[in-house]
Amino acid sequence: MDQKKTATSRRNMIKGAAVAAGAMSVPMVATAQTTTLRFQSTWPAKDIFHEYANDFAKKVNDMASGRLKIEVLPSGAVVPAFQLLEAVSKGTLDGGHGVIAYWYGKNSALALWGSGPAFGMDPNMVLAWHNYGGGKELVEEIYKSLNMDVQTFLYGPMPTQPLGWFKKPVAKVEDMKGLKFRTVGLAVDVFTELGTAVNPLPGGEIVPALDRGLIDAAEFNNASSDRVLGFPDVAKNCMLQSFHQSGEQFEILFNGPKYRALPQELRSIIDYAVQAASADMSWKAIQRNSQDYIELKKQGVKFYKTPDSILRAQLAAWDKTIAKKAAENPMFKKVLDSQKAFAERAGQWQNDYTVDFKMAYNHYFGKGAKKS
């Protein structure tokens, strides 16, 4: 072989290898685009509920690693709280955080995911029914009938809500009659049956109305929310324990087209973020609610157990309410029957298996407990 050609060929090979090596040393640059979704909650910015909405968004944002970002605005930033569902369905908002009972006026069956004694189920059991007992499919059926194109997730079992805040404590059912009272969902019908004049105000309007005398008493949700909303500034009596909303949860909404347009991987992240946020919310609620319960007492609030006579009257009022609603609305009956079948089985298991934790608490902290 000609020596000149051999040398030229060798130089070309070395040059080519150098170019290839240089190309390999150039780092890959990610070009993934960020999808930003604008959410609104139905809660004031200072409420722990809005904090829960932000907690969910952070979990999604962290796991999505820049591919998906949820930004959460407080109630009223774009639409009033009670208009959130329509705003998300129409695409005015990409999503939202609230409670499904707020849409009670569109189909009374929706309130069964929060109002009432739920056949003796606690909020976590209601979520079990929703996820594994047919509730999820029923919600989707209702939204479809309302032409609401949304993706809904229920999560976050709320602790049992108090009967409410009163200017004077109530000792018997007759004390409820004639009171101008705030509540929402099917609890409206229950308290109406008990003789109160109900005004279903959104969260941010309750304390001002109570302060101005537009209502005499009100319920909202928990020690942390009630404290930050200012209830102890306008009332000093809180009645604990009630069946009107003893099994409620939160709802996370996504605009249907926006959600379906996301890659499956991001939809899976959302699904698992809902589950993680549900557990985290329930743990945070125990921590914060118990702390704020003590702070409310320091502010001079007196707490009373709701008399059993009122609790029994609530159950009787609930029975009348659901009988009437089931006769008026076939979907209401369908949801009710599904809940009842699940509750009968799951409730027997829970009641038979669960030990009396109050016995253990009183052993260590009750009257007569040994002090270490």
TrEMBL record:
Record keywords: Signal
Statement: the UniProt record of this protein carries the keyword Signal: yes
A Pfam family hit: DctP
Signal peptide residue numbers: 1-32
CDD domains documented for this protein: PBP2_TRAP_ketoacid_lactate_like (cd13604)
InterPro entries with a match to the protein in the record: DctP_fam, SBP_TakP-like, TAT_signal, TRAP_DctP_sf
NCBIfam families membership: TRAP_S1
Protein name per Swiss-Prot or TrEMBL: TRAP transporter substrate-binding protein
Lineage: Bacteria, Pseudomonadati, Pseudomonadota, Betaproteobacteria, Burkholderiales
